[in-house]
Amino acid sequence: MNFWRSVMAIVWKDIRAELRTKDIFSSMFVFALLAVIVFNFAFELRVPDMKMVAPGIIWVAVSFAGTLGLNRAFVIEQDKGSLAGLLLAPVDRSAIYFGKMLGNLLFMLVVEAILLPLVMIFFNLTLLTWQHLLVLGLGTFGFAAVGTIFSAIAVNTRAREVLLPILLFPVLVPVLVAGVKMTGALLDGETFSSLSNWLRLTLVYDVVFTGVAYLTFGYVVEE
Amino acid sequence: MARANRGLTILTIVAAVGILLAAWLALVAAPDAAGLTRDETFAQRIIYFHVPSAWLSMLAFGVTMIGGIGYLITSQRGWDNVAVSSAEIGIAFTLAVMASGSVWAKPAWNVWWTWDPRLTTYTIVFLLYVSYFMLRSAMDDPARRARFASVYGIFAFLSVPITFFSIRLWRTIHPVLFDAKNFGLSSGMRPAFFFGLAAFTLLYVVLLLHRVRLEQTKEEVETLKDAILGA
Question: How close is the nearest chain A Cα to the Cα of B157, in Å?
């Protein structure tokens, strides 16, 4: 499979660049942690049980940190001219999309993997079950699918970093609603099967928007 | 310069007459809804404007998506002109929907606003297309602006049904304030309702044609300016 080999090459390039600089990861993680702590102060005195607001805190922290990471994803490519290099490489444009998308997804998942245990400790919750991880993973997938292409759009505009969240959040509403709802239901001890509608919605979202991004990415990076 | 052709002038007049007639049918000819209080009876008549506006905003954003797809396939500026013109009209009607809805909601629900699925979806739709215009205004190169806006227009429109569905699912545990149609339209109301729908659709077509013409004229002015300054 030549296509997936080029995709993996791009993912690997991003991982190696990240391992050397640790720019994106460190800022994403610290920002997510700060968001959780700020929310702790914002809610703690008024909310009887942090379990009530924890799903919102987790998803907002993940979204903010994700936006921060996505902003960097193409700024680095653009400023160092490596995007031009990627476009010149004899690979399909959609391979570039999937490469960048999987890279962004991976960074977000790593941030979540470290953030989740900390949230567990701070708020005395149980979050490390496969159900929680699946829900978070599916939501993050949708986030990265839409975020990657919007990031490629935003980096080419005058406003750059400022524009990405404005473009991204209205389109992300279904993922956030479903994610908060599912995490909340799991925290309340509801069964996994009761979430099937939400899971289906998130899956539809992931599939539809990955498909649209796959079809349109070529037009976004075209010069 | 493209002058307003006769067809468009006639269509504009027809649309204006149609809207006036629709207003008369809605405000005078249509019978009062049964079983409502006085305020509610008056407010109920917004349905003749509210529903057509809602339908038009969705139609307009759908046309924006089609214009975007057309542009991406053909790279013809005309498609982008249609897309941006339609999005602008769509935003205007979205605001009309929200404003008229509030007028009705106050007597009917006793609040101006509630986080009901439709209202919430409309707020997000409004924000989607505000973002669409912010994106457009953040670029100077027309070809790139058209490309990016086309892509965003596709994402935005496709997200609307998913958003609506998600918010509907989200609200199911709450008491439902009203179901899809808690008052069916009586036969006396139907002419006014459907005539209004048709008149508003025609209004949309006319506005779109005018707006597209404006966009073309703008383009011509740009070209002329370049030609003169470049010489």
Answer: 9
